[in-house]
Each structure stands twice: as C-alpha cells, then as structure tokens.
Amino acid sequence: MRFPHRMQAVLVAALWGINFVVIEVGLRDLPPLVLTALRFVAAALPLVFLVPRPTARFRYVLGYGIILGVCKFGILFVAIDAGMPPGLASLVLQTQALVSVMLATAFLGERPGGTQLAGVLVGSAGIALLAVGVGGHATAIGFALTLVAAVSWALANVVVRASGETRPLSLLVWSSLVPPLPLLGLAGVVDGPRVVFDAITGMSWSAVLAVGYVGYLSTLVGWGIWNRLIGTYSVARVAPFSLLVPIFGLAAAALLLDEPITWTEIVAGAVVLVGLALVVRTPAPRGADTSAGGAPARPASTPLALPQPADTDLNAAVPAGMLTDVVGPPRSPKQAPWRPQTGRSDGERGTGS
Question: How far, CA to CA in Å, does 98 sit from each of 101, 230, 279?
C-alpha cells in the first residue's frame, strides 16, 4: 500500500476507536436499534440527493445495506446494551480481520502470503492479550452477538470487493437507505412503538451529537475511506488495519474518561503493531501489477474496477487519497431513561459494569 493510503487506514481506525465511547453515550438516551437506525438516516440524508447512484448491481447495494446496517451494527449495538462491555466488544469485534482474510480466500480467490497471514495471526494474538488485560464481565448473549457482528463485518468487506463498485461513496450513501426501516420495525417489536416514538422525539443534545458522530464521521468518512481502500487493494491487505481500533479506543478512554492504561495493554498494543507491520510490508505476489501505487492486480474472476478519478462526481467528498467502533467505559449504573422501570438494578441486568 502507498504511504498516504496507510495513513488513511490509520485515520479510520482512530475514528472507529473513538466511536465506541460515542456509542456508549448514545445508548444512555436511545434504544440500540433506534440509535442504529438514526445512524444510517444521517448517513443517507441529504447526500442521497447529491451523489449519483452506485455502479454496482442492486443486489450488492441491498446486500451491503442489510449486512452492514442491520446485521453488523444492529447486532453490535444490541450486544453492548445486552451486557457486552464496550471495551471488550471493540476487541472481540476485531476477529473480523482474520475472518475477512479467510472469506476473501474462499470467495474472491485472494491468496495471502505466508508472512501476511502470520501478521494477521500475530495481530490477533495481540488482540487476545488486550482482552485479557482489559477483562470485565460479559454476558454470554452479548459475547455471542459480538462474534456474529464481527462475521457480518467480514462479509460486508467481501461484498464491497466483489461488487465492482467504482463509486465507494455512492455505495455507502445509497445502501444507507436500506437499514432504517427494518431496524425501526424491529425496535417497535422489541421496545414498543411508544418507546421508539418518545426516544426519537425526546432526544437530548448528547444523543443528537452521538448520532451526528456515528452517522457522519464514523459512517460516511470512516466507511467511505475504508470501502475505497478495499476497492483499490485486497481485503486481506486492508482488513488488518482494524486491529488498531482497540488501541485508539483505549487511548481515547484514557484521555477523555481518565481510564488508566496498564503495562499489559501497552505490550499487547506493541504486538498488534508488529503484526500489522508484517501485513503492510508483505511484498506483492509474483506477477502482480504494482504500477497503481503498489496495488496488486485483481484476479480475473473479480469484476472490480479501480475507483474513478476524484473529479468525476461528488464521491470526491471522500478525499481521493483518503459501531464498532470503540472502547468506552462500562455503562453508568443510572438506568437509561428510555428503558421501562423493572425494579432491577443494572448489576442484575448484567451490563458488565
């Protein structure tokens, strides 16, 4: 990968690291499925009226919207609300890097080199060490749902790569029209229509700001850059950069929430960086065309074209060289205002705090 593209991937990891703190703030005022729905409403409006339609076939746009919006983020937000500590969630979610490599090998014909695969494994070991260092109690359902969210993220990466999309921003914006209605429908079933209505009409400023961050910065900017990079390089080369998300999340929690950083976390972070260095420095396979800034030639079976020049449409809103998200503190013991009073404390709900 070219150096500017590596820096863009690092920027995305930073945005997604901080995002976990923001998600925790948003869940204090909004049910998880409502927060997820509003995230994609913000991502779709008003840009859907300004950017052209995606070049990919409709099934890819629909599939991406369902897999990323309903499955990945909807399930992740529910997992955090169901007792998965946000910090631990950000760590477990990064198993998507290894799953992405395996799925790209199985469905896209990508063949990561031995050093590259070793880098993914080393980085995953660092994530496991971080999980041990962070600790925390998680409910079984919360942990299982987070693993499902990680697999959904990996599937979304494969869909982007296989779609042949040349307008990454268009794919992101138009696919964001898909999740809101299913998510709000599910929220009506789970929480009740009245709760959904009151949550949306009675949003606090902190909830509005949380929706703005997860909708515009985390989704449009973060996923816009991410999809462009996956369209330019291979999934196996881009996905491991998500291993940096927990590191940025831990740093954000330390700076913004005064959470201490332990030596275990420092050592684990160094292991992650070593693994990522192995992935990034892996030479291109023999016969690969590296004339486009180090991007290996795509397999003939993958109908993916390089992105169009930045001045061809409004997709240039994501700079051409340009859920889950992030470590947050355990949920405050104060009961969320939207949750019906049950007479049970948060500890009895198994929030992991």
Answer: 5, 15, 12
Mean pLDDT across the stretch 20-27? 84
**Res. 291 pLDDT band, cuts 50 70 90:** very low
Quote the pTM value.
0.70
Instruction: Print the SS3 string covering the chain.
Output: CCHHHHHHHHHHHHHHHHHHHHHHHHHCCCCHHHHHHHHHHHHHCCHHHCCCCCCCCHHHHHHHHHHHHHHHHHHHHHHHHCCCCHHHHHHHHHHHHHHHHHHHHHHCCCCCCHHHHHHHHHHHHHHHHHHHHHCCCCCHHHHHHHHHHHHHHHHHHHHHHHHCCCCHHHHHHHHCCCCHHHHHHHHHHHHCHHHHHHHHHCCCHHHHHHHHHHHHHHHHHHHHHHHHHHHHCCHHHHHHHHHHHHHHHHHHHHHHHCCCCCHHHHHHHHHHHHHHHHHHCCCCCCCCCCCCCCCCCCCCCCCCCCCCCCCCCHHHHCCCCCCCCCCCCCCCCCCCCCCCCCCCCHHHHCCCC
Contact indicator for 284, 294 with CB cutoff of 8 Å: yes
What is the reported pLDDT for 289? 40
CA–CA separation, 153 and 240 (whole Å): 12
Contact 353, 347 (CB under 8 A): yes
Structure tokens at 291: 């004339």
Q: What tens digit of pLDDT does each residue of 131-145 get?
A: 676 655 667 788 889
Q: How confident is the model at residue 9 (pLDDT cuts 50, 70, 90)?
A: very high
List all residues 6 or more positions away from 33 whose beta carbon is below 8 Å from its beta carbon.
74, 77, 78, 183, 184, 186, 187, 190, 191
Pick the closest to residue 183 from 25, 349, 31, 28 (CA basis). Answer: 31
Q: Find out whether 272 and 17 touch, Cβ atoms under 8 Å.
A: no
Q: Count how many Cα atoms sit within 13 Å of the Cα of residue 1 in the half-sphere of its side chain.
A: 31
The per-residue pLDDT for range 266-290, each reduced to its tens digit, is 787 788 778 777 776 655 444 444 4
